[in-house]
Amino acid sequence: MAQEHLDPLTAQDARLLAREDACVHMLIGSVATFEGPAPEIGALREHIRQRLRVVPRYRQRPAFPPAGLGMPRWVDDPNFNLDYHVRHAALPAPGDGAKLQRMVARLFSQSLDRTKPLWELYVVEGLRADDGGRDRWALISKTHLALVDGADGIDLLTVMFDLDAESGAPARGRVPAHDAWQPRPLPTTAQLAAAALEDRAREAAELPRQTLTALSDPARLATGVLQTAGSLLSSVRPAAAAPLDEPIGPHRRFVTIPARLSEFRVIKDALDATVNDVVLATVAGGLRHWLHQRGARTAGVELYAAVPVSIRVGTEHEGFASQLTQVVAPLPVDLGDAAARVRLIRDAMRGVKRSAGALDADLIAGMDNFAPPTILAQASRLGAPPDSYSLAITNIPGPQSARFVLGRRLETIAPVGFLDEGRPLTVSVMSYAGSVHFGLLADYDALPDITEIAVGIEASLEELLQQVGAVEPDNVASRSRSPKRPVRA
């Protein structure tokens, strides 16, 4: 999709900007770690500069018409400075995983400057392996949700990665030979007002035709109703007042949890479930542990998660396509048996998948391109009714072959979601090259004990592996103390 100067924001993008305040930051991103020493910052900026043509929105900022006349518009930033957006940072020694996670939390506690393009990228040096081994470096991506717009939006991170260490072939598209970008002049206040009035006149003229088109195509109308509803399970059981129904402040905590994709596949095969079912069950186990650590009872507690799934839309004549939508899944924190939690979630999700024509999670991102950041943005835009869920859980299948930046291999990547009003916790999960990383973002004051959720997720995964016979009981404790698992903030 072309991203042109003076494009109006979509209604959804404008709502995302309008909903943002001192406490709600409409930000998503990731924290990635790489092998070897960090590249020279100038070389990385040039690498990014060459690929900005693929994502022109990253050199544009929103411009607002006077008196709220109409939609804001994307305009070229005449003062665009790549040095401002691609920043250099270093961790204090010893640069461990806990310090990196605290840096992520601090960065995602700060809103983006709306007078500039709505993204920042941090090159972080001084990161050491948790066993005190070789130096590594990290890349923290921070992007406003409005910047990756719609199903055709592309995140900058998607085009930054290469398929191999030598050729520099990007994961999506071709490296432009030359970047001759020149910003177009900023519109005046009068021009913005006139453009808004033209948009309103055009919308009024097109409304009758759009109505007739919808009424003459019942299948398309049904798809629109499904999109508007947002949640396929929200009417089953509304979420009662729960421990995760709290106001949020401006500050954040962030924790990552590593695991192996093979572990989830062993469990899902043994229990006739999906990887996503196992992910949801391990999060439920983590929340159960957290509640018990707080001295709370879990009997009778009902928690639900807003979960994106891919559904099949279209007709046999026109061809089918996949589209993300939101469902609400139970998180049975009242069940003490980990396998029973998987089975309950499996049965609940099977029903909604059959009714909606949902695809397996592996097909959401079953392509060779590095699309997980884009999928996270699209999933974060979906909305279930606020009183139908306790937290959002997004499971993003990524590529299983290695990716590179300037010849440095990507080792791990953990997603960072966003907190909505009254939702002090969000869980984002991403798989890559045989690994799985959970990213837990929480409100600083509401969840000072977020580490207990991480401990519970790890324990729940270990219990499931033991129940399906993947590990011996005597090996569970030693696996939990494995040096491969980073110290958490």
Automatic annotation (TrEMBL):
InterPro entries: Acyl_transf_WS/DGAT (IPR014292), O-acyltransferase_WSD1-like (IPR045034), O-acyltransferase_WSD1_C (IPR009721), O-acyltransferase_WSD1_N (IPR004255). It is an enzyme of class 2 (transferase). Pfam families: WS_DGAT_C, WS_DGAT_cat. Its EC number is 2.3.1.20. Residues 324-464 form the O-acyltransferase WSD1 C-terminal domain. Keywords: Acyltransferase, Glycerol metabolism, Lipid biosynthesis, Lipid metabolism, Transferase. It comes from the Bacteria. Residues 9-279 form the O-acyltransferase WSD1-like N-terminal domain. It catalyses: an acyl-CoA + a 1,2-diacyl-sn-glycerol = a triacyl-sn-glycerol + CoA. Pathway: Glycerolipid metabolism; triacylglycerol biosynthesis; Lipid metabolism. The keyword Lipid metabolism applies. NCBIfam families: acyl_WS_DGAT (TIGR02946). Belongs to the long-chain O-acyltransferase family. This is Diacylglycerol O-acyltransferase. It comes from Svornostia abyssi.
